[in-house]
TrEMBL record:
UniProt organism field: Chitinophaga rupis
The protein, known as: Imidazolonepropionase
Pfam families: Amidohydro_1
Domain Amidohydrolase-related: 347-411
GO molecular function terms listed in the Swiss-Prot or TrEMBL record: hydrolase activity, acting on carbon-nitrogen (but not peptide) bonds
Amino acid sequence: MIKHLSLYITCVVFTGRVLAQETIYPAAAQQKTIVLTHATIHVGNGQVIENGSIAFVNGKITAVGAEVPSSADAQVIDVQGQHIYPGIIAPASDVGLTEVESVRATNDYEEVGELNPSVRALIAYNTDSKVINTLRVNGILLAQVTPAGDLLSGSSSVVQLDAWNWEDAAYKADDGQHFFMPQLLPPSNPFRGPQPPANDREKEAYEKIESVRAFFREAKAYIQEGKHTETNLKFEALRKLFSKEQKLYIHCNIVKEMLLAVDFAKEFGFEVVIVGGSDAYMIPDILKQNNIAVILAQPHSLPTMQDDDVDQPYKTAAQLQKAGVLFCISNEGFWQQRNLMFEAGTASAYGMSKEEALSAITLNTAKILGIDKTTGSLEPGKDANIAVSTGDILDMRSNNITHAFIQGREVSLDNKHKQLYERYKYKYGLK
């Protein structure tokens, strides 16, 4: 009996340790000054500090440099020979809005209908997603949670990835509206079956684009009115867009789609950001002249056009950098976000410097999302969103995060993947 009871207790303890990701919970607020010392500090704005230190208290960075004073009660962490980076920011992601793509009940990223500006992705954000912890372990500490849809999908929000609920997670609520422009390029997937003639598809796409334009015109007229006999919730949701408190993120790729995005910016005075922009390298001057930023989607992909260079997606970032276009790098989906830093690493091998590539997933992203005053680089006064790696964070061979801090709180780097790794090491006697 005692033997069986002992075996039962052992199984319960072991199972609880390796299976219960529920024991991974948000970190408590920073209690004392923390100083990270003897590291190579990559500030995020192009500056690199050798053998430097960084201090932060109450979630804010207080000092960065070769000589950083430390109080007697400070917690000093010697990260000798390691690298300190700003926390990486994942834009245009549906992390926390979906868990298993093939299980409909776990997908909450899209609403019924085509015009849904009143939808808020933030309130659907699931802080208990098992995917979130797999992002933090690679240094991704913030994400722009973005709704999907046919045309106007609703508003996105920036969240920090260590929270009890969506209210705690909110870093910048409702930062912008999202317009998924219908494709003006025939689908290239041969498995989609018979398609309508190209002219009919393009005509239908233009009609939908014009319907969105008409919707914005009606919304503008509604907002300019002093009083209303009835409240239109969809028009009300666009007030901050017209007042430039929000940006309009237009998801499109080819040149004629991006030129239409420029037209939207000119007609309505919106602050427009292009999401996707695979052909942005063809019109960098136009984008720069109109102050349109680009969230460059998934460089690890095939070219959009058949006659493009096969490595064009790798080169586009450097071409935008050279032209002076404000851009950042994103990755599609949710679990794929864990590879975001490696996408930037590839860009650094195709014309960008390592520090420019780092800015493309930190400070540039913060500028585009409107949070660069609080994060994106390691500067005094900004939030202590920090990742520490034993090697180059952009290199999948040496990326190894040892510490991560969100607003000064040291967050757990455990996740389901690590737990399963330990589980099967135990099963096969490899521990």
